[in-house]
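pinging the channel bc i need a second pair of eyes. not urgent but kinda urgent?? the chain im working w is below, pasted from the shared doc
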Amino acid sequence: MSIANRLLNLFLPKENQNEGEDYASKILAFSISCWILIIFFVVLSVSAFLVSNNLLAIVSASGVMLIGLFMGLYTKNNSYNPTYNYSVLFVAAVVFEFIIWSGSIGITSAIAIGLLPMISAATLGHKKGTIVNIIFLAVAIIGLFAPTDIFNNNEELPFVFKGLFIVSFIAVMLLANLLDAIKVKFMHSMEKGVLDLKTTNKQHQVFISGLSHQIRTPLNNIMVIANLLESITIDEKQKDLIDTIHASTNNLVNVVNSMVEISNIDIKERGSISIPFNLYSTINSTIKIFSTQNTNNIPFNLKIDGSIPDNLLGDPVRIKQIFLNLIESILKNKGVGKANINIIVSKRDETDKNIDLNVEVKSDKPLLLPLNHDQNLFVTNDNSITPANSQSYINILELSITQKLIESNGGKLSVQLTPENSSFSFPYSLEKVGSIQLKDQQQSEDKENLARTEMNRAQGLSIKLEDANVLLVEDNLINQKIVVLSLKKLVKSIDIANNGKEALDKFGSSKFDIILMDIQMPIMNGIVSTKKIREIESSSTSRIPIIAITANALLGDKEECLSAGMDDYISKPFQIEVLIQKMKNLLGA
């Protein structure tokens, strides 16, 4: 392979190796043909000079110089041009015809002339190459069999030699055409295969996009209902169960995000939530989910440093997600036998506002990792990966989502596996109750909306959320009910449009302060509806804020919404607090 690559680099410049297959092959054929002809003409010129055939030596040397000139022009232009092919073939044909007509043809020159059909077919294709070869052969036959009273240079050549030369030339011409035709057919077959593959991939993308949309909508309903239950639940145990529903739903969201290979928007949005919670109760309730399952029968041991406050500020749902994933990974890969799982939370550092923790989840049994994806064999981890590094373990144990959750808090997941035990550790920062700290994402969102908010206030357009008239554009009745239940006590009124066409009608007949726009709807989708609203507004100075609320979360969906004229974007499933904050930002309150 290295020899082939060296030859490729020799005859095909690197800047042309990324050209299309057809052009690259023609450039390569041109380069090789030029070098073959130059070598032959140099040898022929030297041989003719040694036997005092000066005219043939001059003609051959002229062919070398002309072909070298065309190669230089090609290199300078650095692009494929068929004119160079025709020029080189013309020079070669003239030199070969001179050899034939001058009677200087021999076995060596006959073999060299036999290369002409191969060169013409390779550089011009079998159709155009055939025309060139037929013209050349016709002129050569005239030179071979011209009457003796006109030319007598070839009268001493045996008739059999002349016949064999013609037959051999025709045979080589047919072979060259056949090879080129096979190459063209193979290329067409390859192109068809690529097109079929692209079509299949497109169908897969459409299927995954539709599946993602179908999954996200009910997930969003579950999350919003959990929020509503949380707002009316005062029992601590019930609240803890609702948090577990949140954590499990978020895990499903992250799985969907990974399936469609998009940036995890929901992790970033969830990062803005900071509420008081009990650290021990949060972790302990997660443990109980597994300890109450008879199939596991796993003893847990939870130890939290006594110097850590009971109540802290943070996101208990995200903490539940992390422990759910780590414990599930241990149980799934622990092999046969009972394992004891120890969870140790210690204090790393503490300030007036924050406390930095170190969390470790340990099992006294080794984890068994798959040898590869094609076999069902399992081996102990100390033989499966060398050198042992956390990232390799994270990938194999499918803990990428957990890693993102920890990284969003500023930490890093570390995995240590030995033939005797397994350990997962990571740092985690929380706020003390009563401390005030602006999150990075809150600062970023404030900066993004500061200009619009100040402009609205300057124009007297700022509106409090409780005074806002909202237009919800949504075709799904369950989704309509969910959003209305979530917002009806927070806003002045909510009107509903079942599609983009109804939204346009209501926009023209009523005054709204903000629009919540779905994307996929019958009759008229949210993108078209938004563009038409912006067209109507272009003749006035008003601009109503529009937030896209959609299950479309593939790469490019957010950009499409914003380019259509929407002011913000949120993907399903979402936290209702995030939607409320976005509404407040756009209303300028």
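so The chain has 21 helices and 14 strands. and The first helix runs from residue 2 to 11. — does that match what u expected or am i reading it wrong
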